[in-house]
Design brief:
- The radius of gyration is 24 Å and the shape is globular.
- It has about 475 residues and is of the alpha/beta class.
- The protein is built from 13 helices and 22 strands.
- Helix 1 packs parallel to helix 8 (about 325-340) and helix 3 packs parallel to helix 6 (about 190-200).
- It binds flavin-adenine dinucleotide (FAD) and adenosine monophosphate (AMP).
- Flavin-adenine dinucleotide binds next to strand 2, helix 2, helix 3, strand 4 and helix 8.
C-alpha cells in the first residue's frame, strides 16, 4: 500500500519548505518533494531563493559593495585603501558556503519538525496522488489529503540571446563568474539585471544595460525611478532605455549583440552577457493530463485569492501562481494555505507586499505610488525627506536618496512608503507594519524615533506630509 500524508508539498523553495514546516508544526503528517541537486550532486533544499537567487545575489552584492567602498568610500574617513585587491574565486566561494549553510539548515529544520524529505521529481496525478520519479529512475506513488504545488520559476530565454552559461549566461551563471568581465552586457533593467549588473560594475566591469522599455523601473514611484537612474548612471552603469535586443553572435570568448533603438540598428561587443528578462513558471511534467488542475493563459497555475486550485485539496503557491515573484510572497502564501487546511480563515494582504531592489542605494517600497494613486483619482498629500539632511546618513557618508510618504488627503491614512537610500528595505518594512494597522501620517509623526537613526528620515517624511517636518523646510504649509 502506498504511503499517505496529510500534506504533500512539491518543491522546497521558500514557498514549499515554509509550508511543509508550518504543516508539520500544526500536527499534519507532511512530506516535501524536491529534485534540485548542488554541484556535488547532493539534494539541496531552499529552491531558487537559497541556491541561486535572493541569498547568493545578496552575498555578492555585499562583497562587491565592501570592495567598492574600499576604493571610493574609505578615503573620506581617513582610511588609506592602497593595496586593496579583489579575489573573485574567494568571493564566489564565500557565497557558496553561505548557500550550503542555509540549504543544509532547511534539511535540519525538516528533521527537527518531522517533515519527510523525499528526493525526486513530483507530479500530481488524479485523486490527490503524487508520483515521485527518484534519481535512480524508480517511481513511487504516494497519497495525500492535501497537495501544495510550489515548483517555482526559471529564467525566461529569448531567441536573440540563447544562454550557453559561458559567454551568454542567465542569473545563475552570473553568480559564478570566476573573474571580472571587462565588458559586461545585461539584457533587462529589472530587479535581477540591476542587482547583478551592480555586483560586477563595482568590481570593475564596464556594464551596459539594454532595456527594451523607454521607462526605467516602471513599477517604482516615478520620483524614485528618476533618482535611481541618475545614481546608477553616476556609478557607471550605462543604462540604455528603448534598446531592444534583436540578435547576438558568440565569437570565441566574446559576443556581438545587436539591438534596435530610436536611431535604428546598433551593435555592441561584450565579454559576458547576462540575460535577465524575467522569469516564468515551472510546470514541466508537473500535472498529469487528468489531474484536474488548470493553468491560466500565461502558464501559471490558476488559483483563487487563497491559492486554491479548482481541485479541492490541491493548492499552488509562490512563483508558479499570479502575483509578484518574491520569496516573502511565496512563504506567506505557504503559511496561509496550511492554516486554511487546518480550518483557520487566514487571509493574505496582497496590497502590502514590500518590493526591494538591493542596489546601492537600496530601493524599496510598499503600497501604491504617486502616479498610480493619481491615475485612480485619489487626492494625496506627500512628504519627502532627503537623506542629505539626516545626521546618521551624514555620519555614514551615505546621503543619497530620500524617503517619500504618501497619505490620503482626506483621511491622512498612509497609502505608500517609497525609499531610495541607505537601509531602504528596513525603513519600508516599518512603513508596512504601520500600514497593516491603518496608520496615518500623523500617527508616525507622533511616535518617538531613536536619534540618530536612518529611521528618523521616515519620521520626518511622515511629518512633512502635513507640513510638520522639523529638519527640512516644509513644502506643504500647515
Ligand atoms: P523556487 O524558489 O523556485 O523553488 C521551487 C523548487 O521546486 C525548486 O527547488 C525546484 O527544483 C523544485 N521543483 C520544481 N518542480 C519540481 C517537481 N516537479 N518536483 C520536485 N521539485 C520541483 N526574491 C525576493 O523576495 N528577494 C530577493 O532579494 C530576490 N532576489 C532574487 C535574485 C535572483 C538572482 C533570483 C533569480 C531571484 C530572486 N528572488 C528574490 C526571487 C525568489 O528567488 C523567488 O520569488 C522565490 O524563490 C520563489 O519561491 P518558490 O518557492 O515559489 O519557488
Ligand atoms: P523583470 O521582469 O523585472 O525581471 O525585467 C525584465 C526586463 O527585461 C523588462 O523590463 C523587459 O522590458 C526587458 N526585456 C525583455 N526582453 C528584452 C529584449 N529583447 N531587449 C531588451 N530588454 C528586454
Amino acid at each position: 500500500m502506498s504511503q499517505k500524508f496529510d500534506v504533500v508539498v512539491i518543491g522546497a523553495g521558500p514557498g514549499g519548505y515554509v509550508a511543509a514546516i508550518k504543516a508539520a508544526q500544526l500536527g499534519l503528517s507532511t512530506a516535501c518533494i524536491e529534485k534540485y541537486t548542488d554541484k556535488e550532486g547532493k539534494l539541496a533544499l531552499g529552491g531558487t531563493c537559497l541556491n541561486v537567487g535572493c541569498i547568493p545575489s545578496k552575498a555578492l552584492l555585499d562583497s562587491s559593495w565592501k570592495f567598492h567602498e574600499a576604493q571610493v568610500g574609505f578615503a573620506i574617513h581617513g582610511i588609506n585603501h592602497a593595496g586593496v585587491t579583489m579575489d573573485v574565486p574567494a568571493m564566489v566561494g564565500r557565497k557558496a558556503n553561505i548557500v550550503k549553510g542555509l540549504t543544509s539548515g532547511v534539511a535540519t529544520l525538516f528533521k527537527a519538525n518531522g517533515v519527510t524529505s523525499l528526493q525526486g521529481h513530483g507530479k500530481l496525478l488524479a485523486g490527490k496522488k503524487v508520483e515521485i520519479t527518484k534519481p535512480d529512475g524508480s517511481v513511487e506513488i504516494i497519497e495525500a489529503e492535501n497537495v501544495i504545488l510550489a515548483p517555482g520559476s526559471r529564467p525566461i530565454d529569448i531567441p536573440p540571446a540563447p544562454v550557453d552559461q559561458n559567454v551568454i549566461v542567465d542569473s545563475t551563471g552570473a553568480l559564478e563568474f570566476q573573474s571580472v568581465p571587462k565588458r559586461l552586457g545585461v539584457i533587462g533593467a529589472g530587479v535581477i539585471g540591476l542587482e547583478l549588473g551592480s555586483v560586477w560594475s563595482r568590481l570593475g566591469s564596464q556594464v551596459t544595460v539594454l532595456e527594451a522599455l523607454d521607462t526605467f523601473l516602471l513599477a517604482a514611484d516615478s520620483a524614485v525611478s528618476k533618482e535611481a537612474l541618475k545614481t546608477l548612471t553616476k556609478q557607471g552603469l550605462d543604462i540604455k532605455l528603448g534598446a531592444r535586443v534583436t540578435g547576438s553572435k558568440v565569437n570565441g570568448e566574446e559576443v556581438v549583440v545587436t539591438y534596435t533603438d530610436k536611431n535604428g540598428e546598433q551593435t555592441i561587443t561584450f565579454d559576458k552577457l547576462i540575460v535577465a528578462v524575467g522569469r516564468r513558471p515551472v510546470t514541466t511534467d508537473l500535472l498529469a493530463a487528468d489531474s484536474g488542475v488548470n493553468l491560466d493563459e500565461r502558464g501559471f497555475v490558476h488559483v483563487d485569492d487563497h491559492c486554491a486550485t479548482t481541485v479541492p485539496g490541491v493548492f499552488a503557491i509562490g512563483d508558479v501562481v499570479r502575483g509578484m515573484m518574491l520569496a516573502h510572497k511565496a512563504s506567506e502564501e505557504g503559511i496561509m494555505v496550511v492554516e486554511r487546511i487546518k480550518g483557520h480563515k487566514t487571509q493574505m494582504n496582497y496590497d502590502l507586499i514590500p518590493s526591494v531592489i538591493y542596489t546601492h542605494p537600496e530601493i524599496a517600497w510598499v503600497g501604491k505610488n504617486e502616479q498610480q494613486l493619481k491615475a485612480e483619482g485619489v487626492e494625496v498629500n506627500v512628504g519627502t525627506f532627503p537623506f542629505a539632511a539626516s545626521g546618521r546618513a551624514m555620519a555614514a557618508n551615505d546621503t543619497g536618496g530620500f524617503v517619500k510618504v504618501i497619505a490620503d488627503a482626506k483621511t491622512d491614512r498612509v497609502l505608500g512608503v517609497h525609499v531610495i537610500g541607505p537601509g531602504a528595505a528596513e525603513l519600508v518594512q516599518q512603513g508596512a507594519i504601520g500600514m497593516e494597522f491603518g496608520t496615518s501620517a500623523e500617527d508616525i509623526g507622533m511616535m518617538v524615533f531613536s536619534h540618530p537613526t536612518l529611521s528618523e528620515a521616515l519620521h520626518e517624511a511622515a511629518l512633512a506630509v502635513n507640513g510638520h517636518a522639523i529638519h527640512i523646510a516644509n513644502k506643504k504649509k500647515r
